[in-house]
Design a protein that fits this description.
The chain is mainly alpha-helical and 313 residues long. The protein is built from 8 helices and 3 strands, in the order ααααβααααββ.
C-alpha cells in the first residue's frame, strides 16, 4: 500500500452514512452482549443461538470496520465491496432471527423468578437487537444497486442479495432436517435432502466466486450467464423437492396430514417436516425471483482489480 495515495485512515469509514450505520451496529452489538451477560441471561439451544449470532455479527463488524478505516482491505485478495454487502446482508438475517427468537423464549409479561428487573433487561436486549437489525439493514440499503446505476459488485444487486437469503433459508432447512425429521425413511425424501444440499453448494460457489473476485473463472460463458444457468437449475430442482417432500411427509399413505396429539412439543418430527416444507416453498419463490432479476444484470468491463462492475437494465 502506497503511503502517498492519501491519509492512512479512511475518513469515509467514519464521516459517511455507511460509517454511521456501522458505528450503530457496533454500539447495538456491544449493548446487546453486555445486557445479556450482565443480567438478562440466556439458556438452552435457543439462547445459545441468539448469543452466538450477536457475538459473531459483532466480531464481523469490528473486523470490517477496522479494515475499512485503516484501508488494510486493499491487502486482501477479495472483492471488498462484494464482501461487505454480503456480510451486512447475512448479519441482517441473523439479527432478525435473534430478535424474534429471544423475546419469544425469554420475555414474558409476568416477572420471572429472578425478579422484574431481569424481564426489563430482556426487553432492553430485544429493543437493542431490533435497532441493530435496522442498522445492518441500513447498510444493505446504502450499498444496494439501483436500477440503471453502474455499481461495484454483483452482491449489491437484487440477485446477489437474494443469494444470501437463499443460503440462510437453506441453513434453516438443514437445522429442521437435523431435528428428528426422519428424512431417511424414504428414498424420495433423501432425494429432497440431496436437492437442498446441491442447491446450497451451488449458491455458495456463486457467492464465493464473487467475493473472491473470480468471476472470470468460468471460461466457457460470461459470469452473468453462468448465474442464470445455475439459478434455472436450482429453480427446477427446488420445484421437484417442493412437490415431493410434502407428499412423502403429509400424505396419509406415508405420514399424517395433521399433527399427532401424542407428539412432544419441541421434539416432534411432524413439526420439523412442516418447517422443511414451508421453507422449501419459500426458497423456491426466492429462486424464481432471483431468476427474474438475473435477466436484468449485464456485465460491463472494469479496471478495478478486486471487483467486477455490473449494471442493472
Amino acid at each position: 500500500m502506497n503511503s502517498q495515495e492519501g491519509p492512512y485512515l479512511n475518513k469515509k469509514a467514519l464521516l459517511s452514512p455507511l460509517g454511521a450505520a456501522r458505528l450503530c451496529q457496533l454500539a447495538m452489538g456491544c449493548a446487546v452482549i453486555a445486557l445479556v451477560v450482565h443480567t438478562a441471561g440466556y439458556s438452552g439451544s435457543h439462547g445459545i443461538f441468539c448469543m452466538a449470532a450477536w457475538c459473531f455479527c459483532f466480531a464481523m463488524t469490528v473486523l470490517v470496520f477496522f479494515l475499512d478505516a485503516t484501508r488494510l482491505y486493499s491487502c486482501l485478495p477479495v472483492s471488498w465491496d462484494n464482501l461487505t454487502v454480503t456480510c451486512a446482508a447475512f448479519a441482517t438475517l441473523m439479527y432478525v432471527t435473534a430478535s424474534v427468537v429471544y423475546p419469544l423464549f425469554f420475555v414474558r409479561s409476568e416477572c420471572p423468578y429472578a425478579g422484574c428487573h431481569v424481564r426489563d433487561f430482556r426487553i432492553a436486549v430485544t429493543v437493542c437487537s431490533i435497532l441493530g437489525t435496522i442498522a445492518y439493514g441500513a447498510e444493505v440499503a446504502l450499498c444496494r444497486a439501483r436500477p440503471g446505476q453502474s455499481v461495484v459488485g454483483y452482491m449489491s444487486t437484487a440477485s446477489g442479495l437474494l443469494k444470501v437469503v437463499q443460503g440462510f433459508v437453506a441453513c434453516v432447512i438443514f437445522g429442521a432436517l437435523a431435528n428428528g425429521s426422519e428424512y431417511s425413511r424414504y428414498p424420495a425424501t433423501i432425494y429432497c435432502v440431496a436437492v437442498y444440499s446441491f442447491c446450497f453448494a451451488l449458491t455458495s460457489v456463486v457467492v464465493m466466486m464473487t467475493v473472491c473476485g473470480r468471476t472470470k473463472a468460468v471460461r466457457c460463458m460470461p459470469f452473468d450467464r453462468f448465474v442464470v444457468v445455475c439459478t434455472l437449475l436450482e429453480v427446477l430442482l427446488y420445484l421437484s423437492a417442493s412437490v415431493v417432500w410434502p407428499v412423502f411427509c403429509f400424505d396419509v399413505k406415508y405420514g399424517s396430514l395433521w399433527r399427532p396429539s401424542s407428539c412432544p412439543q419441541g421434539k416432534c418430527p411432524w413439526d420439523s417436516k412442516l418447517v422443511v416444507s414451508v421453507f422449501s416453498f419459500a426458497n423456491f419463490g426466492l429462486y424464481v425471483a432471483d431468476l427474474v432479476y438475473s435477466q436484468r444484470i449485464k456485465h460491463v468491463s472494469s479496471h478495478l482489480p478486486t471487483a467486477s462492475r455490473f449494471r442493472t437494465a
